[in-house]
Amino acid sequence: MPFPIHRMRRLRASEPMRSLVRETRLDPAEFILPLFACPGEGIRREIGAMPGNFQMSVDEIVRECAEVRALGIGGVILFGLPETKDETASGAYADDGIVQRAIRAIRREVPGLLIVTDVCNCEYTSHGHCGKIVDGEVDNDQTLEWLAASAVSHARAGADIVAPSDMMDGRVAAIRHELDANDFAHIPILSYAAKFASVFYGPFREAAESAPQFGDRRAYQMDPANGREAMREIELDLEEGADMIMVKPAMPYLDLIRDARRRFDVPIAAYQVSGEFSMIEAAARNGWIDHDRAMLESLTCIRRAGAQIILTYFAKPAAELLG
């Protein structure tokens, strides 16, 4: 019996050969770096559960954004930590809110950098939930008014893209209507369309100071067991006017990224969330895995599954390695 003609190892023999036939490539222009804006000046406070990431005052955010632009990273997404929180999430849609101030400063000092804004309420409410509380529950329809107002205020400040992450029903339609009514028909919506009630958000709660003060968010974020429902959520958001959609988290939901890529011909983003980042960082610091290889492998898998935009806390170190 002759040896098989097909020897798959021929195309793996060297790094130049592997690079030549590589199917999936990473480009820093596809990355979005999450940033956390806080009040004050000269503040760069490291997040304990997310080494190398910081709560930053607006002046520090501007410096960070200049570095992001120099590295060729696609853009940033802004989260806000307000001076005060209240029952009505007023800091989310105030014209002088922390995110709105950060947008204006970035637009002025780092022209050309793409600015995405997270549109939600959990960082701004005293109770830590994503909407208005009525009889102990988040009221879906009344919350839509807050979300639409926030999106308009971000657009007015100079945001390029608004990204609602609250998972209220009908939020995309409400935001689209208000953007159009206020002469922001050109602003696209990147919807967190399939956002799951995931344990992998844990470190983010420290970063954004947004842990709910009672209960949890499983009544509005998705059940991790439901894949078909995720496709329905995406479909509905696109019908309501979303221009791009997101799957969050990324790595545990690669199957859904792939399903979405096969079904929907729109730009697809995936969020490599805080827990995914922190697990790699912790394992690498304990010497259990190679940091850089794990980082790039995880990003490559997300890209291979079909996401063309990756929100990741690894944006800067990955961009530096990719050159």
How would you explain this protein's 3D organization?
The chain has twelve helices and twelve strands. A hairpin with a 7-residue loop joins strand 2 and strand 3 (54-56). Helix 5 packs across helix 6 (171-181) and helix 8 (227-240) packs across helix 9 (254-263). The model has no long low-confidence stretch (mean pLDDT 95). It has a single domain (24-322), classed as TIM Barrel (Alpha-Beta Barrel), CATH 3.20.20.70. It starts with 14 loop residues before the first helix and ends with a helix. The relative contact order is 0.13. It has 323 residues and is of the alpha/beta class.
User: Average pLDDT, to the nearest integer?
Assistant: 95
Secondary structure tally, helices: 12
Gross morphology: globular
* CA gyration radius, whole angstroms: 20 Å
- Number of separate structural domains: 1
Q: Could you name the ranges where pLDDT drops below 50 across 5 or more consecutive residues? A: none
CATH topology: TIM Barrel
Short structural summary:
With 323 residues, the chain is α/β, with parallel strands linked by helices.
Show the helix and strand layout.
Layout: H1 15-21, E1 31-37, E2 44-46, E3 54-56, H2 58-70, E4 75-80, H3 90-93, H4 98-109, E5 114-119, E6 133-134, E7 137-138, H5 140-157, E8 161-164, H6 171-181, E9 190-195, H7 202-208, H8 227-240, E10 244-248, H9 254-263, E11 268-272, H10 274-285, H11 291-305, E12 309-312, H12 315-322
Parallel strand pairs: 1-3, 1-4, 1-12, 4-5, 5-8, 9-10, 10-11, 11-12
Antiparallel strand pairs: 2-3, 6-7
